[in-house]
Design a protein that fits this description.
Blueprint: H1 13-42, H2 45-67, H3 73-94, E1 95-96, H4 99-115, H5 123-143, E2 149-150, H6 155-182, H7 185-239
Parallel strand pairs: 1-2
């Protein structure tokens, strides 16, 4: 007899999870191929790093798919959030010019994970994941620990990321609609609060922080350039 206990996952839960993550998995597979081609074209090590981050994320997604049939729903949720964070935070570490897109994609995908029927769907774990994701982006842009490749020099990369953003928006919209229709009043309230209040506030705050950090960086570069020009003129004057 099938297990009727509250902790046992529904028979079709694996299919629900697979349908939810399938678009993201397909985008990740396409991304690996694109990054390898861009590495051959540019020779930039950042493209190989992107491919590695994406492959690691795909491995975590596969682990989540294996956790669900075994009833390990908490591990499945953590694996999916880890896949999202690892891939997108890794991209933010080595690529510049995509911060707003990567932030938006990550917020939407984390919300999608929160809407999946993976055990208790309380708001606290997802809110913690969202807050951690936002803070990580702010720290990376303020500190910039690694040399970053400018995505603006590769239009095809910009097009791919914009397409991934559209996929994330569609996936989240469908997940939110389904969860809103079948959920309790409490679940609907949580969804409405996250989608209509928390995400816009967090996104606007982080975008402002990213723009401020970029402006400060540009000012510093301009100041260094001005100093270099001044030193060069002094050297030329001394030589003459």
């Amino acid at each position: 007899m099938p297990d009727k206990s509250p902790t046992a996952p529904p028979r079709d839960l694996s299919q629900v999870v697979r349908r939810a993550v399938r678009p993201v998995t397909m985008a990740a597979i396409g991304g690996v191929g694109l990054y390898l081609l861009l590495f051959l074209q540019t020779g930039a090590w950042q493209m190989l790093a992107l491919a590695a981050f994406t492959l690691a994320a795909a491995g975590l997604v596969e682990a989540a798919n294996r956790f669900v049939p075994r009833g390990r729903l908490t591990e499945a949720r953590l694996a999916l959030i880890g896949a999202i964070g690892g891939m997108l935070v890794g991209a933010e570490l080595v690529i510049s010019g995509l911060s707003v897109y990567l932030l938006f994609i990550g917020l939407l995908l984390i919300i999608t994970v929160g809407l999946l029927p993976l055990g208790k769907r309380g708001p606290v774990p997802i809110l913690i994941a969202l807050a951690t994701y936002v803070v990580t982006f702010i720290v990376i842009n303020a500190w910039q620990p690694l040399p970053r490749f400018s995505a603006q020099t590769l239009p095809i990369l910009m097009v791919f990321v914009i397409g991934a953003t559209l996929i994330a928006v569609t996936t989240t919209g469908l997940g939110a609609t389904r969860a809103f229709q079948i959920g309790s009043i409490r679940t609907r309230l949580i969804i409405a609060t996250v989608v209509l209040v928390i995400v816009p506030v967090a996104a606007s705050g982080v975008v402002s922080s990213l723009l401020s950090a970029e402006n400060n960086r540009n000012r510093a570069l301009d100041a260094l350039e001005a100093i270099a020009v001044l030193k060069e003129s002094q050297v030329n004057a001394w030589a003459n």
